[in-house]
Automatic annotation (TrEMBL):
The keyword Hydrolase applies. Pfam families: Abhydrolase_1. SUPFAM superfamilies: alpha/beta-Hydrolases. This is Alpha/beta hydrolase. The keyword Magnesium does not apply. PANTHER family: HYDROLASE, ALPHA/BETA FOLD FAMILY PROTEIN, NON-HEME CHLOROPEROXIDASE. One of its GO terms (molecular function) is hydrolase activity. Residues 26-263 form the AB hydrolase-1 domain.
Length: 280
């Protein structure tokens, strides 16, 4: 099957895509909040054309996966990713996560992928670990009021809120001189509105308040850390730079001027660098 559903241990149906030769090395993509596996279109087509097996799933409550009213936390996200990997029996896989998906990758690799011997490498793109919210351990984080504001905006008018995020900070379209791509905004909005308001609301706590220091320290496979220095969603000094310090085998790449959504706006650059890392 090139797409389908896997039922997790708690009964949640998770949608996945599985394209390409089943004997090729798998590359598994983990999407950001509040999107779906469709956010990886440019990467999946690129790596498929380069001979890889490409797999991506919709997080619970997102995209085409079941809109359950429970389990919207990093532990369930990682377990769901593992359910897909086990169902498809993926081995020697490269797991690539963007934003919240980067947190999912970190927990999946540490808790499931490495212990099961399924992972060759990992990539964190504009990823949320070690933690986004300001804490005593990480004073460079964002104040909780930022995330309370996200929750308030989502609850008041999700459709308008999602449009404003995509049209503004996510892709850097609010920067002077930016080339605003209306269809990209529309596609972000489409992906977001496919999902569950409850999953998105509860997911804000998951991506902002989960301390993943131990996950990062536990990852022994080679890991590429990539982020733009104009990321207005996840500040890179509290994300990529700390990830590179905590990961035992990290390669850090900071892109000048790239936004949070660089896998769409700068797909050509990112794809080439991902391919070089996977082949290295």
């Amino acid at each position: 099957m090139s797409s389908g559903f896997v039922k997790t241990k708690d009964g949640t149906e998770i949608f996945y895509k599985d394209w390409g030769p089943k004997d090729a090395q798998p590359i598994v993509f983990h999407h950001g909040w509040p999107l779906s596996s469709d956010d990886w279109d440019a990467q999946m087509l690129f790596f498929l054309a380069n001979g890889y097996r490409v797999v991506a799933h919709d997080r619970r409550g997102h995209g085409r996966s079941a809109q359950v009213d429970f389990g919207h936390d990093m532990d369930h996200y990682a377990a769901d990713a593992s359910a897909v990997a086990e169902h498809l029996d993926l081995k020697n896989a490269v797991h690539i996560g963007h934003s919240t998906g980067g947190g999912e990758v970190a927990r999946y690799v540490a808790k499931f992928g490495q212990p099961q011997g399924r992972v060759a490498k990992a990539v964190l793109v504009s990823a949320v670990p070690p933690i986004m919210v300001k804490t005593e351990r990480y004073p460079g984080g964002l104040p909780i009021s930022v995330f309370d504001g996200l929750r308030a905006g989502l609850a008041a008018n999700r459709a308008q809120f999602f449009h404003d995020v995509a049209a503004g900070p996510f892709y850097g379209f609010n920067r002077a001189g930016a080339t605003v791509m209306a269809p990209v905004i529309d596609n972000w909005w489409r992906q977001g509105m496919m999902g569950s308001a409850l999953a998105h609301y509860q997911g804000i706590k998951a991506f902002s308040e989960t301390d993943q220091t131990d996950d990062l320290k536990a990852i022994t496979v080679p890991t590429l850390v990539a982020q733009g220095d104009d990321d207005q969603i996840v500040p890179y000094k509290n994300a990529a730079e700390l990830q590179a310090q905590l990961l035992p085998h990290a390669t850090l790449k900071v892109y000048k001027g790239f936004p949070h959504g660089m896998l769409t706006t700068h797909a050509d650059v990112l794809n080439a660098d991902l391919l070089a890392f996977i082949r290295s």
